[in-house]
Amino acid sequence: MLKTFYAIVANALVASLTNTFVWFAVTFWVYLETRSVIATSVMAGVFTATIAITGLFLGALVDRYPKKRMMLVSSTGSLLCYALAGVLFALTPPEVFADVSSVQLWVFIVLILGGAIVGNLRGIALSTLVTILVPEPDRDRANGLVGTTNGVAFLVASIISGVIIGFLGMVWMLISAVVLTLLVIMHLATLAIPDRVAVDPGQSGNNDTTPSEASIDTTIDIRGTIRT
């Protein structure tokens, strides 16, 4: 189980790094193209607000559906958004993106934002896998590893995003995002990820009902989160 957990953490690190560096890179690029601080401020505000709002719903999805399926949906959604953004970028004249009021510019930003937001689903799923895959004595270190993974992704992304935009440009940034996300999906597909904590038969007592046979509530309910 620990081997699987470490493989998932490595997979999540690449995915988180990709999503974060794409968003940072687009933020830098928008400022370079438009010279508008207001545009980048709006982007930052919308990104933060969207992360906070969608976290409630994404958490409910992770609770209801298999973790691996949600992680695959997350990366597939990001891949689709980045691919569409790449097509839009290729079909739009460069001078159009210099206009802060351009519809194409903001559609491009929304597509990139969508890829980053959908990618947030993976981070939520990863946190829940600690309980499933890691023995209780090691969970404190596992949770620390998850936090470190997120921090490293944020730190490295802030550096390489500026380097890529400065030296390679938006085209190679989008190509990198699509390729890395595709590799993440292919690697994740090879991993076997359980959705329930394994139960020791010797500790089950007289209860013959296994977790897979137990009645599980699959409704999406965010009321508890809101009350908290």
TrEMBL record:
Major facilitator superfamily (MFS) profile domain location: 1-228
PROSITE patterns noted in UniProt: MFS
UniProt GO molecular function: transmembrane transporter activity
Topology versus the membrane: Multi-pass membrane protein
InterPro entries, alphabetized: MFS (IPR011701), MFS_dom (IPR020846), MFS_trans_sf (IPR036259)
Keywords: Cell membrane, Membrane, Transmembrane, Transmembrane helix
Domain of life of the native organism: Bacteria
GO CC annotations, alphabetized: plasma membrane
The keyword Transmembrane is annotated on this UniProt entry: yes
Protein's cellular compartments: Cell membrane
Protein name: Multidrug and toxin extrusion (MATE) family efflux pump YdhE/NorM, homolog
